[in-house]
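Hi there, hope your week has been kind to you so far. No rush at all, and the record is pasted right below.
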Amino acid sequence: MRFLTGLVCTLMMLAFGTETGSAREAGAPEWRIVIHGGAGVILRENLSAEQEAAYTAALETSLKAGGEVLASGGSAVDAVQAAVLTMEDDPLFNAGRGAVMTAARIHELDASIMDGRERNAGAVAGVTRVRNPILAARAVMDQSEHVMFAGQGADNFSESVGLELVDNSYFTTERRSQALDRVLREQTRTDADRHGTVGAVAIDKDGNLAAATTTGGMTAKAAGRIGDSPIIGAATYAQNGVCAVSATGHGEYFIRVGVAKTICSRVELASETITAAAENALGQVETLGGDGGVIVMGGEGQYAYVFNSAGMYRGMMDASGAMETAIFEQGE
């Protein structure tokens, strides 16, 4: 079993399986945000220098958006929302514009968000017209008595609270259309076709945690299929003083393990480190036949990237001025 944790940093290199950052009482930065743009078979030989630069720039844009919220005294939940919004609008990622297509050649998008203060949460599944699904998830949390809306009901709710709606074709890109054609023709999916999610976790100056996850799902998925991204406890979880998690990978397996909640429960109840807890959860995923990764923020601001796939788009920014991004396995 292979687990890859805490990669390239402009300031340091850390071994796999260790947590990066130190506890707040030991002098950690006042705030911190960590993001991912999906995990999978991401090999250097498959990305041109131009593509690598584009992904790195996109990760930095996301980090800066979330970091600006935290630097101005904003909340962790506002920060994770801001960070994933930039990736929903960037066709490089499988979320919002640039999302993958279902077998019926449409887009069905999922998103969730959770505030660690009182464990409030919101999610949408299978939306087809909301430009930014993470805003719909946030609206469910803040403006309804519910946690999740799905399908047409989610689109209707989003419209009722004034969110921007678009034609479903807005999300389509030539790259995703070609990928769908290939999967339908060959009747098989590559690793890249099964993966693709973006997410963020953060801790603010008051010690509040939050997490957000958003995705277009799986290429050529069946109509109505829902993965782990909108499910609280599977892809997204946040609890103050314990941890915040956003996951990416083969969603069916992450749902069966309840990855995000499993990690936080092991931290809370077994006093495991966030890295050990994440490795355990992903070990269960791997045993069942799945793969992917997680970003985790501990209750004191420590953080980890843990994944059992060949790469994960990821990055971190904090109040000390540190910023790191990475794509491949350590050493590549």
About this structure: The two ends are 19 Å apart (CA to CA). The first strand starts at residue 4 and ends at 5.
